Each structure stands twice: as C-alpha cells, then as structure tokens.
Amino acid sequence: MIDQFVIPLLKILIVLNATLVGVTYMVLLERKVIAWAQSRLGPMRVGPYGVLQPVADAIKLMLKEDITPTKADRWVFTVAPIISMVPALIVYAVIPFGPVVRLFGRDVSLYITDINVGLLYIVSVASVGVYGIILAGYASNSKFPLLSSLRASAQLISYEVAVTLTLVSVILMSGSLSMVSIVDSQYNARVWFAFVQPVAFVIFFIGGLAETNRAPFDLPEAEQELTGGFHTEYSGMRFALFFLAEYANMIVVSSVATTLFFGGWLRPFPNVAALHFLDVLPSWTWFLLKSFVFLYIFIWVRATLPRYRYDQLMRLGWKVLIPLAIANLVVTGIVKVMLF
Amino acid sequence: METPSTIHGAMFDTSELVINMGPQHPSTHGVLRVILRLDGEKVVDAEVVIGYLHRGIEKLSENRNWTQIILLTDRMDYVAAATSNVGYCETVEKLMQIDVPRRAKYIRTVLMELQRIASHCLWVGTHAMDIGAMTVFLYAFRERELILDLFEEFCGARLTYNSMRIGGLPQDIPPGWDKKVLAFCDIMDAKVDEYETLLTHNRIWLERTKGIGVIGGAEAAGLGLCGPALRGSGVARDVRKDEPYAAYDEMDFDVPVGVAGDTYDRYLVRMEEFRQSLRIIRQATEGIPEGPIVGKVPRLIKPAAGETYHAIESPKGELGYFIVSDGKSTNPYRFRVRPPSFCNLQALPRLVRGHLVADVVALIGSIDIVLGEVDR
Amino acid sequence: MAEAITFYTIAACILGFAALVVTTKDTVHSVLFLVLDFLFVAALYVMLGAQFLAAIQILVYAGGIVVLYLFVVMLVNLKRAPEAHQDPHRLSKLGFGLACAVLIELGVIIVSGYMKAPPAALAAPAVLPVSGNTEQVGWLLYTSYLIPFEIASMLLLVAMIGAIVLAKREL
C-alpha cells in the first residue's frame, strides 16, 4: 500500500515542487549570470542580493490584468500556455536523480518510475509541447503572431529530428531505452557517453538550444524581429507560463543531457575505488551539479553569441546537424558491430 | 508607393506584404520609419520616412548669433557632438579667415578623435545588439563612459558639449587631462581586442554580416554615401587625408578601406578606425604645443558678406556646413548642414533590396545613422 | 475489474472525441480533438502492454502528423473566414445512408465470423529470441516484416522528394 501509493505520490510532490521552484529561480539565475557577464549586477533590490526577485515577479504577474483579445478563440487561448508547460513537467517522471537508496528502512528509488521506453517517452512528450506554440499564435487571431508561431514550431520540429538521431546513437551504446539502464551501462562501460559520443553530445546540445528557443536560435521571440512573436497577445500569468515553460524545457534538456551523456548520478570515475571519498556527496547532488553546469552554459551562450537568421537556422538544422547525426549513427553502428 | 493605409485592406490577399517598421522600434536607433514591401520574406522595396525629429535647427540658426549656433550643432549628431562643433567653428573661421593657434588645433584633434571612438563604441554596441550579441553593447558603453568622463572634465557636459568657440576653445584643458587621455588609450587598445574576439571571427556574426548589403564603390559614391560606409566599398575618401583640417596634416595615420562593400567590411573598417583613432590621439596628446587657445577673434563676430562650405570627417562620414553671411547682421543669412547620416540613409532602399527582413535591422545599423542629424 | 473500467472510460473518450472531430464547426478545434483521440489511443496501447507502440503513436501521430494537419488548416483558415464554410448539414441524408450501409456490412462480417469455427490455431506468436517490448518489435520488423518495412521507407523517401520538388522555387 505504502509502496504503491504513498511513496510515488511523495516523490511526485517533491519533484514537482522542486521543478517549479527551480524554474522560477532559473529566471533569477539567468538575469544574474547575464548581468555578471555584462559587468552589471542584475537584480539587487528585492531581498539580499535580489534573491527574492522571483517572488516579486510571481506576485506581479498574478496581479496583472488578464487581457484576452476580442476575437480570439477563448478555449484555445487559455489552453495554449498549459500545453506548453505540462510536457516539460511530466518528463520528470522518468528522469533518474539517483539509484536505489536506503531511506527510513525502505529501499527507495530516487526516480518516480523507470519505464522500459523511458527515452522514447521523453521524446514523444516533448513533441507534444509544439502544440502550445502553434495554438498560441493561432489563438491571438492576428496574422503576425500566427506566422511567427508557425515558424517557431517548424524550427522545433526540424531540430527534433537531429536530437532524436543523436539519442538513437546513445541507445546503440547502452542497448536499452530505459533511463536507469542507460546510466547503469555508463557505469559498466566505465566511461561517460559524452567521451565516447562527442559528436552526438554536441549535436544534442545545439539541438537542445534550438528546441527551447534559446539564443542563438531565438529569432522567433526576439524583439528586433518585425513580426511580433507568438506570445504578443499574452499578458500576466499566461505570458509567465510560456516563459516558465521555456525554462522548464531548458532544465529538462540539461537533465536529459546529464543522464545520457554525463553519467546521471554517477560521481566522476565511479569505478575507481581510490576516489571513494567523493561519495560523501550523495548521488543526487552529483546529478544536480551536472545539470546546473549545463544550465549555466545555456545562459552563457545567450549572453555571448549573436542570433541566427531564420533561414540560416533551418539550414544549420537540416543541412549540417541531421547529416552529421546520421553519419554519427552509422559510424557508431559499424564500430559497435565490429568491435563489440 | 501607396501609403500603408490604402495597402491595409489588401494585406491578406497578395503575395506582397507591406509592413511598417517604426517610428517606435527598438532597432531603428531613433525615430525612423521604414515601410517595407515584402515578397514572402524578401524585401522588394523600402521607403524611408524621416522628419520625426525635425526641430528646425537650420531655421533657428537664422535667429541666433554665430556663437549661439554652436549650441545647436551639438544637438544634431548628439552622439558625436564635438565633431559637429568643430566643423561649424572651422567653417566660420574659414569664412572670416581666422587663424586658430596650434595648441587649439591639437586639442581639437584629440577631442574629435576621442569623439570618434565614443561614436564607434555606440555604433558597435547597438549594431551587435540588433544582431543578438547583447553583451558587446554593455562592454562598449562601459568604454564610452570613460570617454564621457574625459569630456566632462574638459567642458562640464557628457553629451552636448558646446566645447568649441570660433577661433579656438572656450577653456584650456585641465592639468593632468592629457595623462588621463593616454591612460585611456592604453585601456582602450585591449578593449577593442575584446570586441573583436567576440565578433570578428564568430561564425554567426560572419553569417549575419558577410554578403549583406553589398554595394560597389562607384555606385556607393553615386548614391552619396560617405564615411566608413563608402570606405567599406573600396573608395579611399577621407576628408582628414584629402582636405586636412585641424592638426590632421601633422598626424600619421592610415585610412582603412574595405574590399567587398558588405556589412562585414563596413564593420571591419570601423573597428580599424578605433585603432587609428587611438594612434592619432596618442600622437596629438603627446605633442600638444604650448600657446594660446584662442586666435585673434573680433569681439563681435560679424563676418563680411560671403558664403563658404567646409567639410570635416565626422564618425558618420563627411559632415559639411554651408553658411551665408550677408555682412549686415550678427546672425547668418543661411545655415545649411550636409549631414552624413542623411546622405547615407538614402542608400538604405538600395541596400535592403533582395535581402530578408531580418537583414534590414543589420543594414540600418551598418550605415550608422543618428536621427538628430538626419532630421535636424 | 479496474481494467474493465479503465478500458470503457478510455473507449468512451475515444468515441466521444471522434464524434466531436466530425461535428465541430471550427476546423482547428476538430484537429485538436483528433490529437486528444490519438492520445487516448496511446493510453489503450499502454493498457495492452505495448508501451513502445504507445510512445511511437504519440511521437509520430500526435506530435508529427497532426502538427502538419494543423499547419495546413491554419494556413488555409488564414485566407477564408469561418462564416464562408458551407452548411455542414447539407448532405446529411446521404451521409446517414452511407454510414448505415457500412454498418450493415461490418455487422454481417462480424456475425458470419462468429458463426464459423475459429481457425484451429491462430498462428501461435513466434517465440522471439529477445524479450522486451522494443526489442520484439525490432526483431519482427527486421526478420518477418523486412520487405514491408523497406517498402514503407522507400515510400517515405519518395514522398519527401516529392514534397521538396513541389515546394521549391529554385533548386
């Protein structure tokens, strides 16, 4: 009874809360990191060193007037940000934060569930997130947001292909679709997959940047773009949901990259007994640390690089990344068959 | 070209779309309105609508005496006010045949070159920010602050300096100012390298600027382009070299000239101008001679009847002043400015034709306009 | 027991949404109900133990094909106001007649199928050398169903090339 209902429920609550808090603090983190990169300080007023800024932002957004365009489709207008946010949250059901540990006399696994098609689940759920963007543009009942949202979703779908191909390379390496067994196979192979599949990792990361509409692939939402972005007509909490969804997606991409390419919860050199003292840090902290590094890189890239034009962005996805991913897959397959 | 109000009804049914950019827009660097006619994503034609910042400076000048007009020249190219001041003062000095002492010429040169760096800092910051590299904007403005501090020490203002007088300077440089200028030069060298590290070999920057807005030298000259926009197309025209003024004939510097005439070459020209300006500043600061700072100027400035045109090289291009004096009043009869931004902006429709909408912003930044100058 | 309840709920949702797909006035709403339909079908697959198929259903159908439907519907809607759609009840009698005919046909087939004896041994599912959902599907695809698989991929390739040729302006 307890194992079947209470513990999973508790896990869900913890993960959901942690994610939502994490997402709101990502906003602050981004503002701070970009500010430091630009010789500024970022938010400093609310709370010591601006730490309570997300709380202030949340209160402001919730108190804002809820404006709906007159001829907009009410249902679709309301549902679009929800469709954007939900996939980013439910992906956490399969992400392993750690192995099975002993807590309060029970064996508790540090992941909500481990389904045998975990990776496929992540990819398919992420593909549903595209609807949020398309519907947001459509529901605004205005030509420019619609075209902009169609462009943004075309961008997402194109890079999904490249990302999925790199995931297939990882599946080839680990032999299983389950997230936990991917981490286990990294343990057994004594090497993190990022070192064995560097090309796949780089393509995954670039694809992740494009999937989450982050710089340098953020033309659909840049203010300099003449045709207003897909979220033009949104204000208040709905607008916030879109941006929280973007940050939630960023965290998802970082978590998946950590799990697939950097050993998930494994400490560096997990097979080397001499480094046993590193085990003082519990497994999930290693996971969080690695994810945090990726999030930092996301923000760093935004502060540094200029932005691609839309046609250059699509050309990069289709003409460079997809052939590279396919080549990587072929090479991986050949090497795997011949050597192992 | 029809006005957008007549086009609006037809917006949905044709392959050509008319969209309006500005006058309120983050990337037009002022109140500029560009009406773009698109075929899908390609720009077929562009119409530039200006005048939103027109303040009637030329007409106002007819009611001000010759020294008061210096205040008005500040407000035209407000990003590079010192060069506008100098241009005007030199024009009047040319009309009245006043000799400016060497010390004043050297200090003017230092100030103008500092102004060139400040203007290019603003240019590189906004240009990069339009294309998405927002950090360069903050870095460039940090350096611009250093220059504005120097100017504040000299004349008390940060933006609208009123820092020249007919015949020389209003006051001498404060003691220690030249050391500060040299210290700034040392800092700036490294900073220009920093901007280049972030942009010049960045693949995304190259893709956004190479081959965008290509214009050949002859066509550029024919359209009236001037300044770095013209030099980017391979035409080596720089008023400082061709018709030297102030202390430029005693300075040793090069004029960077581009090859391909695209946005990237215009960018490279201006980046190299940073370095050449630093070179000039060092030479001029180290060589400031002793002497008076104002020449022999009559108490009441009342030029004899006549007209003259004089041009200088402002950071945006050839800035010319044409003044007509009727010899009877203390106000000019006619005061006409040849603003480089206005002439460069004429080339915008030609440059954007055939490019995508996202390139329009890059091209406006590449021409480097200041609306105060365009509209006066 | 719980399984039966779940099955009937999901089946009711599927049928309900399918009915809504054809009866809604707004085309975009219709496509959205189709997406919901596919999601519930994926839930059915999970109930049957075919998790791989469920994930692929969402990934390919709901996340790919219907997105394209949505693109097309939105771009077409862009040019025509919804009021210009024709009266959806115009040919209802014909539609009703056709539906009855198909229903009678299906009924005849099913009833006559029950009348005959079921075939002696439904080909016993081959014992596959791999276990696990994905692995079994993969094994079958590449051994028993290799030719259909290759033909399907050829078909997709031809469709892709056709789309590019139709849509390009200059190569």
What does the model show?
Chain A starts with a helix and ends with a helix. Chain A has 340 residues and is mainly α. Chain A contains 12 helices and 2 strands; from the N terminus they run H-H-H-E-E-H-H-H-H-H-H-H-H-H. Chain A is globular, with a radius of gyration of 21 Å. With 376 residues, chain B is mostly helical. Chain B has a single domain, classed as Orthogonal Bundle (Cytochrome-c3 Hydrogenase, chain B), CATH 1.10.645.10. Helix content of chain B is 48%, strand content 12%. Chain B contains 16 helices and 6 strands. The longest helix of chain B has 30 residues. The radius of gyration of chain C is 21 Å and the shape is globular. The N and C termini of chain C lie far apart (60 Å). In chain C, helix 1 packs antiparallel against helix 2 and helix 2 packs antiparallel against helix 3. Helix content of chain C is 74%, strand content 0%. Chain C has 2 domains: 78 residues, Up-down Bundle (Four Helix Bundle (Hemerythrin (Met), subunit A)), CATH 1.20.120.1200; 42 residues, no CATH class. Classes of the chains: A mainly alpha (340), B mainly alpha (376), C mainly alpha (171). Chains in contact: A-B, A-C. The interface between A and B is medium-sized, with 26 and 32 residues.
Provide a concise account of the structure shown:
By secondary structure, chain A is mainly alpha-helical.
Q: What share of residues of chain B is helical? A: 40-55%
Number of beta strands of chain A = 2
Overall number of structural domains of chain B: 1
Q: Main β-sheet of chain A, in a few words? A: 2 strands, antiparallel
CATH architecture assignment of chain B: Orthogonal Bundle
* General form of chain B: globular
Oligomer: heterotrimer
Tell me the layout of helices and strands:
The complex is a heterotrimer of chains A (340), B (376) and C (171).
Chain A lengths: L1 H36 L15 H11 L10 H17 L9 E4 L2 E4 L8 H11 L1 H10 L3 H32 L4 H11 L3 H4 L1 H14 L24 H26 L21 H22 L5 H30 L1
Antiparallel strand pairs in A: 1-2
Chain B lengths: L3 H4 L8 E6 L11 E7 L2 E8 L7 H5 L7 H6 L6 H16 L5 H30 L2 H22 L21 H23 L3 H7 L7 H7 L4 H4 L7 H4 L20 H24 L19 E9 L2 E9 L8 E5 L1 H6 L2 H5 L4 H11 L3 H5 L1
Antiparallel strand pairs in B: 1-2, 2-3, 4-5, 5-6
Chain C lengths: L1 H22 L3 H21 L3 H27 L14 H24 L17 H10 L3 H22 L4
